[in-house]
Amino acid sequence: MEHLTTIDRLSLNQITTGNWNLRQAVDGCVRQEIPWIALWRHKVEEIGLADSKRLVKDAGLKVSSLCRGGMFPAATESERQKRIDDNKRAIEEAAELGTDTLVLVCGPSSDKDIATARKMVADGIEQIVPFAADYGIKLGIEPLHPMYAAERCVIVTLNEANTIAEQYQPEQVGVVVDVFHVWWDPDLYNQIARAKGRILGFHVSDWIVPTPDLLMGRGMMGDGVIDIRKIRNAVEQTGYKGPIEVEIFNERIWNQPGDEVLRVMKSRYLEHV
Amino acid sequence: MEHLTTIDRLSLNQITTGNWNLRQAVDGCVRQEIPWIALWRHKVEEIGLADSKRLVKDAGLKVSSLCRGGMFPAATESERQKRIDDNKRAIEEAAELGTDTLVLVCGPSSDKDIATARKMVADGIEQIVPFAADYGIKLGIEPLHPMYAAERCVIVTLNEANTIAEQYQPEQVGVVVDVFHVWWDPDLYNQIARAKGRILGFHVSDWIVPTPDLLMGRGMMGDGVIDIRKIRNAVEQTGYKGPIEVEIFNERIWNQPGDEVLRVMKSRYLEHV
Q: Which SUPFAM superfamilies does the UniProt record give (chains A, B) (predicted)?
């Protein structure tokens, strides 16, 4: 399997430098010559949509995705409608920020009925697809690791994400493959192949052992047990040649100097992705 | 769905009272009139096999299972052989202790090649089946939650466990359903139905939110998000009427007085299982 020889496809998902605001992240990418950035809405909100757009554009950065829409299941119809409205705002923001992909973190169940929550996810996506299409935004369903099923996302396998996505045209709804979330799945390579034409994003980090924390326990590529290159090759065999986001939730990494994180990230990207 | 009306099937998995030795756990079960106990090998070893056997027998307790065999994948042939030998010892111990079920925690991969590790699990089981049959011991493959894939068990879905088990007669190899490990699985109810005649154990606890720790973060039944009763009903529809083990890894619970834990466990069992 071939190494990547350039960082042309490398994207800083800004959660990796969680202590940086958007301005600092943009400046860091410029200094480190990282061509892509993935934005988070709470970071955009800190400095405002217009300024965020201008900062990214003036820096010449490309935006690989906006994170996140989703969070569809809720106990009441009115709350579910609020979530739909919020997804519409996220779609507008994504378009304004110059990306074509909104990442969906689909949300947890509001009660013990996870099957119904999964239906609410499918229903929610159905409701926002036409709106997203009007803005030229693709919806990327990101299955999260099953350990997040109770708190973040009832969609926990690529199989489920593919099944929902296949209800729509590939230019409308697809999937996001994050190695941290899917590496354990015995059906992974079948499901990646099945997602051909629908992979809207590819995220990398690593699963470190021991895992210090459910949320903040991700590692830098090469520090863990995931065969990242094998997964990348499978993703590329489907035709995906888009940006590769480095998305690491880890407080220890957050507390390192951002430029150091970006330097390590670049070398690990070439070595392990 | 019907409540359980008695604790006839309730088993204390002794990891739930992790600070108790086997003698204390046996005495606790007698005081609280819990008819079953599930033993762990490191607890048996503390006081010796012969004394453990005598203690349990004299108390009139039934042993629902011994935990654990497994841990098959290893980097070298000689190390894999050591694991087989250890499994054979576990089978002898299970028979000596008076249970018919050895729970298999199949083990992590020794490198990034999780597919090969899964083959090593299947190969390891194949090697010990005849030995187990000689002792009248059934091998219960327990899929663990995917968050343990790197450290404890590459078998993370009931689908995988069923696929291996189906290579053998039901009286030789089956599966263990632990709600904590499988509740998130979109294919859960299909796989429980598929396991008909092969379910060798049913374990309960709960998934608490927020989850404080990967290993030690399980909760008492009723404190979390798992629809335990729905899963129990599915398990019983396959014909399983055996013991129900309460298996909770949680240091806060370990630090409570053991009898208090058993009292709560009994009432939660009737209320939520």
A: Xylose isomerase-like (SSF51658)
Q: How many CB atoms lie within 10 A of CB A45?
A: 12
φ/ψ (deg, to 5) at B111: -150, -160
Sign of torsion over alpha carbons B185, B190, B195, B200: positive
Cβ proximity of A218 and A207 under 8 Å: yes
Contacts of B151 in chain A (CB under 8 A): 209-211
Q: Nearest-CA distance from B213 to chain A in Å?
A: 7
- Going along A163-266, which residue ranges are E strands? 173-178, 199-204, 206-207, 218-219, 244-246
Interior CA angle at A242 toward A238 and A246, to 5°?
A: 110
* Average pLDDT, 10 consecutive residues per value, chain A (273 residues): 93 97 98 98 98 98 98 98 98 98 98 98 98 98 98 98 98 97 98 98 97 93 98 98 97 96 98 98
Determine the residue type at A127: Q
**C-alpha angle B207/B211/B217, rounded to 5°?**
75
Interchain contact, B224 vs A157, CB within 8 Å: no
Domain A10-272 in CATH 3.20.20.150? The answer is yes
Pair A181, A214: CB distance under 8 Å: no
CB spacing of A145 vs B150 below 8 angstroms: no
Do the Cβ atoms of A220 and A260 come closer than 8 Å? no
Predicted complex ipTM: 0.96
